[in-house]
Specification:
Elements (H helix, E strand, L loop, with lengths): L1 E5 L2 E6 L9 E5 L21 E5 L3 E4 L2 E3 L3 E4 L2 E4 L1 H22 L6 E6 L1 H12 L4 E7 L13 H4 L3 E6 L7 H14 L3 E6 L7 H20 L2
Parallel strand pairs: 3-4, 3-9, 9-10, 10-11, 11-12
Antiparallel strand pairs: 1-2, 2-4, 5-6, 7-8
Length: 223
């Protein structure tokens, strides 16, 4: 596993045994974490994928990073929407450059995000669906700006949404709202709730594994 810096983003690169044109998944950690977090799940996921685990651009503290600023208030989390949109554009540029460099299957990527990383995954898929094979959103929420009207390219993207019933950071209502909206806008949606807090359940990891087995094969068949 290599650590690299591409444009303005640092990332870990974990290649499969046969790296050439391998399907590629980009991992987006949550607020206050780093690129060493989600990459730990890769041995339990799909062995044929290349994993790119990205460090968010904003330093919060030693070893702690965020995609865009948040404020935690008594009434909930508030977001700097201008900064969030800048983060979206920066990440989309990164994805395009990664695709150009690695030439993954289909010239698209899978996105897997946790918490704020899920928001980034949603924003990327909603605005640039042609770059995305599929989205795994764990313990996240929909972005403030949603797609208006039907988008045929978005409708074809498979989504897997996982959320904890006892999530005290982003309550289960956030996951259910994502489910309700996606039900109306995509054709392939899997949604699961688990009796956990703000984390990924072991059963969720198993589901991600089986979900990827099918979707990666579909991506390869479309080559």
């Amino acid at each position: 596993m290599l650590q690299r810096r591409h444009l303005s983003l640092t990332f870990l690169d974990l290649a499969p045994a046969v790296p050439e044109n391998a399907p590629l998944m980009i991992l987006l950690h949550g607020y206050g974490s780093n690129e060493k977090d989600l990459i730990q799940l890769s041995p339990m996921l799909h062995k044929g994928l290349r994993y790119i685990s990205v460090r968010a651009p904003h330093t919060l503290d030693l070893g702690m990073f965020g995609w865009f600023p948040l404020s935690f208030t008594p009434t909930g989390i508030t977001v700097d929407y201008t900064a969030a949109d800048e983060a979206r554009l920066q990440f989309i540029s990164f994805v395009k450059d990664i695709i150009a460099e690695y030439k993954p299957a289909g010239n698209k990527v899978f996105l897997m995000g946790f918490s704020q990383g899920s928001v980034m995954s949603y924003m990327t898929a909603f605005s640039e669906p042609e770059l995305v094979h599929g989205v795994i959103a764990c313990s996240g929420q929909l972005p403030e700006k949603l797609v208006s009207g039907e988008n045929p390219s978005l409708r074809k993207i498979p989504f897997l949404v996982l959320h904890g019933l006892h999530d005290d950071i982003l309550p289960i209502a956030k996951g259910r709202a994502s489910y309700e909206w996606l039900q109306q806008h995509v054709d392939d949606l899997t949604y699961r709730e688990y009796p956990i807090a703000h984390q990924i359940a072991d059963e969720g990891v198993e589901l991600i594994h089986s979900w990827l087995e099918k979707r990666v094969q579909e991506a390869l068949e479309r080559e």
